[in-house]
Amino acid sequence: MNKRGIPKDSGFTLIEVVVAVAILAFAIFSTWRVISSSVSSITRQEKQVKALHIGQACLGRLEGEDFSKVIPENFVATSSGLINYKLNESEILNKDQIVDKNGDGVVDKKDFEVYVYRNGTINPAQEGWSFDPDNLEIQNISVTAGDEVYINYAYYSLVDEGGTIPSSDGEGIKRGTIKLITDPGNLSSITVEELSSASPIYPVNYSSDTCELSFASSDETKSVWIYYLPERTTADTNGDGYQDPTDDSIVGVVQGSFWDIGSGSTTTAVTNTKRVSVTEFWKQEEEIRKVELKTFIQR
Predict the structure, then answer these.
(1) pLDDT > 90? residue 105
(2) How far is residue 134's CA from residue 154's CA, in Å, rounded to a whole number?
(3) Residue 269 per-residue DSSP state
(4) Number of Cβ atoms within 10 Å of the Cβ of 174
(5) How much of the chain exceeds pLDDT 90, in percent?
(6) What pLDDT is recorded for position 18?
């Protein structure tokens, strides 16, 4: 009751309303931050798991490769004079895979190191050699019969995937569609072969938004092998010397060196062991994150 005997209103005062709204807003904001952080963490972990899977598959493929073809590539000259050497065709399909190591915007001989190992001494190859990007050849290397030559560079690795084209919808799988693990950018970047015959199969559509590769109904039930080069930007925002992945791609870089087991370090000598690393990069918001895997390969 007030002094005049009139009952007070039982509603909230303005201050009480403002305090209640502030508490509610704080609670909503805190909940949103927790949800946002959880979603971001799940997305980051998903990309990291994918990157690990791609990197492990690449290392497994390299461990089954001929020692001389594993980067750095090496061979013994069988004759004297000027010779040409073609880069590993099972790993390098075109010049777009070669890393522009010196950052001049062009893939050329400056992105390679060519050494000649002769009578226990290793020296850089004479300056007359060149790189032919169309044929993926190191050309005009001056050698003497018996020289061991090694060629070092870095390259963006292909992604290899296998699967069976589904013939019916079920368990979240679309009929005639295979979802790729990362983004190759467009249909022209993707090569598909039937597993049993190695015959080419031609997908009818690719969606970069969903990473879904669609096939004709006549190709359903076929087991296929899919390989492609993940999409990259032309930028290098973090200055690591490699082109950045896009928002939806995971980009792998392969590089290696000869390894001296005695000293436990890399060497410019040609040894029986190579240390090879595969680094997978992905974009997380504005940051470029990575995971690196290493292996030793012996002849």
Answers:
(1) no
(2) 17
(3) S
(4) 14
(5) 71
(6) 75
Measuring CA to CA, which residue among 89, 131, 126, 128 is closest to residue 110? Answer: 131
Cis amide prior to 133 (ω within 30 degrees):
no
What's the pLDDT score for residue 8? 52
pLDDT of residue 24: 80
DSSP three-state, residue 113? strand
Residue with tokens 């062009």, as numbered in its chain: 106
CA distance 126 to 137: 16
CA–CA dist 185, 211 (Å, integer): 9
Question: What are 257-260's contacts with CB under 8 Å, separation 24+?
Answer: 257/72, 257/152, 258/72, 258/150, 259/296
- The reported pLDDT for the residue numbered 132 is 96
Q: Which of 98, 59, 50, 36 is nearest to 282 (CA)?
A: 50
| pLDDT of amino acid 174 | 87
Q: Please, where are the H alpha helices in the chain?
A: 14-63
User: Are 20 and 12 in contact, with CB atoms under 8 Å apart?
Assistant: yes
Encode pLDDT of 130-171 as tens digits: 999 999 999 999 999 999 999 999 999 999 998 999 987 766
**CA-to-CA separations, 98 to 6, 161, 186, 255, in angstroms, rounded:** 88, 21, 20, 11
